[in-house]
Specification:
The complex is a heterotrimer. By secondary structure, chain B is of the alpha+beta class. Chain B is about 60% helix and about 20% strand. Chain B has helices at about 1-50, 55-90, 95-115, 135-150, 190-200; strands at about 90-95, 115-120, 130, 155-165, 165-175, 205, 210-215. The radius of gyration of chain C is 13 Å and the shape is globular. The chains are: A alpha+beta, B alpha+beta, C alpha/beta.
């Protein structure tokens, strides 16, 4: 069978059980009105609460999404801001250098004192400035002002030098270089067209200033903000992703024109967000790695409120439903009961009224045949009195006898009908000993039991109260159930039969077998007419359903318990005093 | 409680009528069977060639037996007829002995099933009673039913009638051993009996040895 | 003394024929009709002294037939045949002029005695 078919069947079966649970409930013995109430309440609850839950859930996730988006935007804005600040900062430094190269000549700046003087003045204005250096077209640092001894250093084979030959300015990556502490350099080239050459003014700036900007981004404990270059080398120290000049290990991708926020999914539902802000005209990218989800906290509060409101709504809704259902179903129950009582009353009155009519009917129908027999017998007598010659009367007599037979047969239909009528009126009431009745039935099945090597365990309570009921029908029920047990255990099995007082109103007989048991889903059907697990030709499937009906009519009940591979037990409860059914 | 009572009363009525009709029918069937056998016998005798004058008395005997059975059947039917008439009429003036005789005749079969003999002991010249004979029959039946159920086989129940002041009395006297349990345990609750008394007046008392006495005022209703 | 003419009206054929035969053995002149129409026919043809009439005959209701007969010839005496439950019909019948009634199954002696009384009444009427 295709999987869709199985699913469809299962759904249909489930719905069927939900709306026709009588069989199920009947086996458990619950009142059908309670069953109806429960079904209506369930259905109503589902129908009214389902939309509520859907709306609440949708709202919740929608709200969460809004908050997240909001957060994202916030982050983006901050990164944008920071990026611009850094760009501005760098632009300022660049301008400063450019101004200096246009305000002073190469010769002026080659003068150590002049340079130092300018450097000191600038240093005051621009903290973070580490040193100045003037470098000639060959890459040799001619003049230097700063904390290190770097005059005369040769930069000719450095990348930045080669780059700046082409361009007019250059911003380097962070490096430690000769100086062993991380910083970066801005260099500005000045063409000397009359000399056909150029010279470079270079300033190094402490990385810490960059770091300051990075740190300005508002972050939380688990977050990290740092700057990397386009190859992924860290330019500022980071909390969790490595130190300066180490490689940023994660994958990253960003667009040159704008700040991009990417959600990198993480386990446990916490979302990693990474923001990338490439800084214009620099080899750098500002990176923010967000692990905390502050937007999630807010929904918690919201969620609690929502939860609270939902619970109250649910509670209220169900309470109201229950009250309504109780009222309505109870009224239905009462109406049903009244109707049933009225019908029973009418039926009874009808039954009683028919006695008179019955007698009249019987009169006619029995009287005539009897009258005929009387006449024919009388005629025979007359003939014999007239003439004692039997030879003569032979034929006549035979025909009269035949006539009498016919009349007797006519009465047969009447008596048959009368008996049917009386049976309908009277469920036979004998005061019987259940144990005796059981033993009789067992005696009946004895041969079968012995033949199949079945062990029979009897635990019949002594002095069981006598029961007023219909012996024949009760025995029919026992016969049916014990027969089933015999079929269930096959060879060498065990059947345990016990009888005891269940309470002051009922005597209980339990018949237990250690056969293969009945699976749960089949269990609710076994009292249905024509339901049988035996193969074709074996059993009509009517036995248990008839037994069920009999026990019901006698005012008792049957129920069954079973466990697959362990066995099955039938419980038959018979009222001690027969109730009217 | 009301409801239960009604249920019990209805059940009692149904049981009662059911047993009466069943009993009647079985008796009729019995008579018919005898008639059939007797006629068959005559037929056989003729076919066997017993056609001499000497055989005639035997024939007459058999024919007589057939006529007797018809008489029995008719008598039985009369009982049923009267019984149902009482049920339809409810209140009437009736002869207590006839009323009880009829009841016993109709219940005889039921008692015989349990191998119990129903006997009557009627006081003659009882005054006519104006009451509900059908209800009285139902009441007596309820006691008989219990006692029959409680008695072991081969017991005997005598129903005695008598007059006391302005009332008549029906005494139900069981003889024999009772099975375990209350001889009066059974299907008719005390409430139903109370109901009867309320409607008919009179009294019900349980005497020694599980006897029951029903007293009915002569002008009860 | 001439035979008493008896018209027997009953729809049960077996019963009627056996009874008729018995009555004939007792020296009555008997005719049998099974329906009301047949009965009326015989009244004209046969002119019975006594009619033994079953109240439950098909066609005209037994009571109707009784009334018709009495209207036709009030000197004809009618004996009603009834079953055991027919109390009301019997009362009606007596009111409508029936002479007597007898219940089925009948006692032949009782019937013949009633027929003789009816005949006597007719003669003296």
């Amino acid at each position: 069978m295709r999987p869709e078919d199985t699913i469809k069947q299962n759904v249909i079966a489930f719905l069927h059980n939900l709306f026709h649970p009588h069989d199920y409930w009947r086996v458990l013995g619950a009142d059908r009105y309670t069953s109806l109430k429960i079904r209506i309440i369930l259905l109503d609850a589902i129908l009214s609460l389902l939309p509520l839950f859907i709306v609440v859930t949708i709202s919740y996730f929608w709200f969460q999404q809004i908050l997240k988006d909001d957060f994202k935007n916030q982050l983006k804005w901050e990164l944008e801001n920071t990026k611009q600040s850094i760009e501005f900062f760098l632009e300022e430094r660049l301008s400063m250098l450019r101004f200096t190269t246009s305000a002073y000549t190469y010769e002026q700046l080659s003068d150590q004192k002049t340079l130092s003087d300018i450097f000191t003045k600038f240093k005051r204005e621009f903290p973070g400035l580490v040193d100045f250096g003037v470098i000639d077209a060959d890459g040799i640092q001619r003049t230097y002002s700063g904390p290190y001894r770097l005059a005369g250093s040769d930069y000719s084979d450095q990348t930045w030098f080669n780059e700046i030959v082409i361009r007019s300015s250059n911003l380097s990556d962070v490096f430690t270089g000769f100086r062993k502490i991380p910083h970066f350099a801005i260099a500005v080239k000045r063409e000397a067209p009359d000399k056909g050459t150029f010279w470079i003014l270079r300033a190094t700036i402490d990385m810490k200033t960059l770091q300051k900007y990075a740190s300005a981004v508002n972050i939380r404990e688990n977050d990290d903000v740092f700057i990397i270059n386009r190859e992924g080398v860290l330019q500022t120290p980071s909390r969790f992703h490595g130190n300066v000049l180490e490689q940023y290990k994660e994958n990253f991708a960003f667009s040159e024109d704008s700040v991009s926020i990417k959600e990198v999914g993480q386990s446990k539902g916490k979302c990693d967000m990474c923001g990338y802000a490439p800084i214009k005209n620099t080899p750098w990218v500002l990176v923010a790695v967000i692990r905390s989800s502050p937007y999630a906290k807010i929904p918690n509060i919201f969620r609690n409120e929502l939860f609270f409101i939902t619970i109250i709504s649910v509670f209220f809704s169900i309470a109201v439903t229950i009250v309504l259902v109780q009222t309505v179903v109870n009224r239905i129950k009462k109406a049903d009961q009244e109707r049933e009582a009225a019908i029973a009353e009418t039926e009874h009155a009808g039954k009683m009224a028919s006695i008179g009519r019955l007698a009249a009917g019987v009169a006619h129908e029995i009287n005539n045949p009897l009258a005929i027999i009387n006449e024919k017998a009388g005629l025979m007598k007359d003939l014999l009195e007239g003439s004692r010659d039997m030879q003569q009367n032979r034929e006549k007599f035979l025909s009269l006898i035949s006539g009498i037979f016919d009349s007797v047969n006519r009465c047969r239909t009447v008596t048959h009908r009368l008996l049917g009528f009386s049976r309908r009126m009277d469920v036979s009431h004998d005061m019987i000993d259940i144990n005796v009745a059981l033993k009789e039935v067992i005696g009946f099945l004895e041969k079968e039991i012995i033949y199949r090597n079945i062990r029979l365990d009897l635990d019949l309570k002594k002095d069981l109260p006598r029961v007023v009921t219909d012996k024949g029908q009760v025995q029919q029920v026992f016969l049916n159930i014990i027969n089933n047990a015999i079929d269930a255990v096959e060879e060498g099995g065990l059947i345990q039969i016990s009888s005891y007082s269940k309470d002051e109103h009922f005597v209980r007989v339990s018949i237990k077998d250690n056969g293969s048991g009945i699976p749960r889903d089949k269990l609710k059907h076994i009292f249905e007419p024509f339901y049988t697990t035996k193969g074709k030709g074996k059993g009509t499937g009517l036995g248990l359903s008839i037994s069920y009906g009999i026990v019901q009519r006698l005012g008792g009940s049957i129920h069954v318990e079973s466990e697959v591979t362990k066995g099955t037990t039938f419980f038959v409860d018979i009222p001690i005093r027969s109730e009217t059914v | 409680m009301e409801n239960e009572n009604e249920e019990d009363l209805k059940a009692l009525q149904l049981r009662f009528v059911g047993k009466i009709i069943a009993g009647f029918t079985h008796e009729i069937k019995n008579y018919l069977a005898i008639i059939k056998e007797s006629s068959g016998l005559i037929g056989d005798m003729i076919k066997m060639g017993k056609l001499s004058e000497n055989d005639v008395p035997e024939y007459l005997e058999i024919i007589q037996s057939i006529e007797d059975q018809i008489g029995n059947a008719i008598e039985h039917f009369t009982h049923l007829n009267r019984f149902s008439h009482r049920m339809d009429t409810q209140i009437s003036a009736f002869n207590l002995n006839e009323c009880i005789e009829e009841l016993i005749a109709l219940l005889n079969r039921f008692a015989r099933q349990k191998k119990i003999v129903l006997a009557t002991d009627f006081q003659q010249d009882l005054p006519p009673v104006k009451s509900n004979p059908s209800m009285l029959q139902l009441l007596v039946f309820s006691f008989l039913e219990n006692k029959i159920a409680g008695l072991e086989k081969n017991g005997r129940i005598t129903v005695r009638t008598g007059a006391v002041d302005n009332a008549v009395a029906v005494k139900i006297i069981p003889e024999g051993t009772f099975a375990e349990g209350d001889a009066d345990a059974g299907t008719t609750t005390g409430k139903i009996r109370e109901n009867f008394i309320k409607q008919l007046g009179g009294n019900i008392s349980q005497g020694a040895a599980k006897e029951t006495v029903i007293t009915l005022p002569v002008h009860g209703v | 003394m001439p035979q008493t003419k008896v018209l027997l009206v009953d729809d049960e054929i077996e019963f009627a024929s056996a009874l008729a035969e018995r009555l004939q053995l007792r020296n009555y002149d008997v005719k049998v009709g099974h329906t009301a129409i047949e009965a009326m026919g015989f009244i004209h043809q046969f002119m019975p002294d006594v009619v033994v009439l079953d109240l439950k005959i098909p066609g005209m209701d037994g009571l109707e037939t009784l009334k018709t007969i009495k209207k036709l010839d009030p000197t004809i005496e009618v004996i009603m045949l009834t079953g055991h439950g027919d109390v009301l019909s019997v009362e009606e019948g007596m009111k409508s002029g029936a002479f007597e009634y007898i219940m089925k199954p009948i006692d032949i002696g009782e019937l013949t005695s009633k027929i003789d009384k009816a005949k006597k009444k007719r003669i003296n009427a």
